[in-house]
Amino acid sequence: MNYLTDTIAAIASGLTPAGIGVIRISGPEAFRTADRVMRFSGRRSACDADDHTILHGIACDGDGEEIDEALVLIMRAPRSYTGEDVAELQCHGGPFVMKRILDRVLACGARLAEPGEFTKRAFLSGKMDLSQAEGVMELIEAENESARRAALSSLRGDLGSRVSDIRGRLLYETAYLEAALDDPEHISLEGFGERLSGVVSAAEGELSELIRLSEEGRVLTEGIRTVILGRPNAGKSTLLNLFSGRERAIVTSIPGTTRDTLEERIRLGELLLVLTDTAGLREGADEVEGIGIKRAIEAANEADLIIYVVDGTREPCGEDAERLMSFKDRPVILLLNKSDEALAAPADDFAEKLGAEPIIFSAKSGQGKAELEERIKRLFYSGKLAGDKGYIIANARQREALLSCRSSLKKILEAIENGIPEDLWSVDLTDAYTTLGRITGESVNDELINEIFSKFCMGK
Predict the structure, then answer these.
(1) Which of these three, 128, 144, 179, is where a domain ends?
(2) Does residue 458 sit within a domain?
(3) Is 394 helix (H, G, I), strand (E, B) or coil?
(4) CA distance 394 to 439
(5) How many CB atoms lie within 10 A of CB 234?
(6) Structural domain of residue 437, as residue ranges?
(7) What is the CATH number of the domain that holds 187?
């Protein structure tokens, strides 16, 4: 299948009822296909229309029966989303009407586009690099303002531009090194190690910043994996219900009501939490509850954040202190719950005996919720995503490439410091350069490209 010579079409506006529906046609026969489908007002033709103009007409089936009134947007290559000739039919947004028109478009010679194929063609035509193409889907899937801005930054090419700049510097040094190794009589490597060390150190620092920003980007787009832990009846399920705004978990005074993990995606201001309620932690649980407790610990070990809930109406417990100590290497926020009732001891006593500064909290009234949000922001969001160089989001594939490149750069610095011969530097330099090309799409194979675009929605 030749992706740049055939003509494709799909419903670009989704198959839900709406005021307007869009059928996109892209490829060398886009305008001829539009002429076969449409009967334009004033005997006009899509093939003869000027670039970026709008034609009015009636979409008809093969027998000439009218399907719907429509506008057709004409975008000539390369001034279109895909870089090809594109005709977009705007009709009424009823699913049945759109499907009737799409069937007629396909009968006139176009084929149904694969998921993400319009954006794939934009990439193959050089309209955008791979990081920009992935930014399209990130923008569609953005669930908050920060994620939207970060995705728009990727779509503008901010990540690709910064990666390409680093890649260009590494390419220059790689080319110089290989030329010197091939022609040592005319090209000297004297002082090159010191120069290369400076270039690589600077690149490593820039990559480290991108990696840090990408982790914040992951938090923005995927959410903070958050686990609620605590003893039975501490108020964990009430906390989940508070966050979700509904009775998501069963709340009773009977210990051990929650026996399995319960997950909910909730928004806390600008933050997205993938929140997991868990079984109460206690000794002497029955077999079923014991399985729930085991799953709670497993979930906590994989979490980005642990919210540990303590019943403030009971004296500080050594069991809670031991649990908190076992998670000392992970981000933990301690909530001193049930502040709407009389606390069993001053907050300072809880802090001293549990080894953590608690937030005075009430899962029933919501007291302390704003402070909890601020504490989470301080832990996961530096506020520098909107700096001078813009927002950055790197997906898992891109983050892996950034980490791999940084690892190669560290090997180069170690090789220079340890006096390893110059010809071995070239291997890691080439690895670093090639790895960065996976982000922009310059070092990827067809199989990976197909896999990436297959995750896009139909019509994009």
Answers:
(1) 128
(2) no
(3) coil
(4) 9
(5) 26
(6) 134-219+391-441
(7) 1.20.120.430
